[in-house]
């Protein structure tokens, strides 16, 4: 069945979303976070926010009915789209030649396997990801070298990301577009927001020891906090000031930070540690620079 006219040309509601689902025998499952854009103008605005151009290779999770996928393909060099629900295969049959369609779980594709910066084939991520995929996606975005990451997510999740001391160490959450829940089918419980995850600058370049140490802790969760902080301070001083800090000096700096002993003797696998380091950032800058 040809679907080239699936997206209505006129601005407003996507034409016959309910009717198309009915004709395909598809009942969207809210439990699986299956909520679909019911307004073509919103889809167009998402493409604009992502600033897609002819050199971009875009990664999309949850192609669904293909509304956003097709719009991305009109602007991008290539779109790599994933959809785990094979009920949508018929709706995603006739796609532009620059769309590489996968009917499988996208997690294996974006998994980086290691906390160090990597670059993938795609340079932009534009998606309305299922809630269940968001956390692993965000953890992998921390070490992915990308140009743009534009996600449509529940408002509550956007707030959680903003307050998360790990994620906030790697990117700033810019809220670019609010979307009322009535613009989706079926209607979810809460409103959504399109966020632009802007990469924070390298803390070595900006000479931000607090941010550097939070990242260092995240990549050394197998160590005790006190040991990771000590090593991180030594490395930071060497990279930013070209000077050597001894282990004893670094240990004294950690002591001056005033972090609770119970946290220093734990692994950095909880948010409280990161918040403590963040709260001591100003003092930390003084002691690292002055020695």
UniProtKB/TrEMBL annotation:
CDD domains to which the protein is assigned, alphabetical: AdoMet_MTases
Keywords for this protein: Methyltransferase, RNA-binding, S-adenosyl-L-methionine, Transferase
Name this protein carries in UniProt: Ribosomal RNA adenine methylase transferase N-terminal domain-containing protein
Ribosomal RNA adenine methylase transferase N-terminal domain mapped to chain residues: 42-201
Highest taxon listed in the record's lineage: Bacteria
Pfam families found in the cross-reference section: RrnaAD
Membership in a protein family: Belongs to the class I-like SAM-binding methyltransferase superfamily. rRNA adenine N(6)-methyltransferase family.
SMART domains tied to this protein: rADc
Organism ancestry: Bacteria, Katanobacteria
């Amino acid at each position: 069945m040809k679907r080239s006219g699936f997206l209505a040309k006129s601005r407003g509601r996507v034409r016959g979303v309910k009717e198309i689902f009915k004709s395909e025998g598809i009942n969207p499952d809210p439990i699986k976070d299956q909520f679909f854009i019911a307004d073509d103008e919103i889809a167009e605005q998402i493409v604009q926010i992502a600033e897609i151009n002819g050199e971009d290779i875009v990664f999309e999770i949850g192609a669904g009915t293909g509304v956003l996928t097709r719009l991305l393909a009109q602007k991008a060099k290539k779109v790599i789209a994933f959809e785990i629900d094979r009920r949508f295969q018929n709706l995603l049959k006739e796609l532009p030649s620059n769309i590489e369609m996968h009917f499988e779980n996208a997690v294996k594709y974006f998994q980086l396997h290691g906390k160090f910066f990597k670059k993938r084939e795609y340079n932009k991520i534009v998606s309305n990801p299922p809630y269940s995929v968001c956390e692993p996606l965000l953890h992998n975005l921390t070490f992915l070298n990308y140009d743009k990451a534009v996600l449509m997510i529940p408002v509550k999740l956007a707030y959680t990301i903003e307050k998360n001391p790990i994620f906030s160490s790697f990117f700033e959450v810019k809220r670019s577009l609010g979307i009322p829940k009535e613009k989706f089918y079926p209607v979810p419980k809460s409103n959504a927001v399109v966020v632009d995850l802007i990469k924070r600058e390298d803390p070595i370049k900006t000479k931000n020891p607090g941010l550097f140490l939070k990242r260092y802790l995240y990549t050394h969760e197998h160590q005790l906090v006190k040991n990771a902080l000590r090593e991180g301070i030594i490395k930071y001083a060497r990279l930013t000031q070209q000077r050597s800090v001894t282990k004893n000096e670094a240990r004294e700096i950690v002591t001056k930070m005033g972090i609770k002993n119970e946290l220093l003797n734990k692994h950095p696998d909880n948010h409280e540690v990161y918040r403590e380091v963040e709260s001591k950032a100003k003092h930390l800058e003084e002691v690292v620079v002055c020695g």
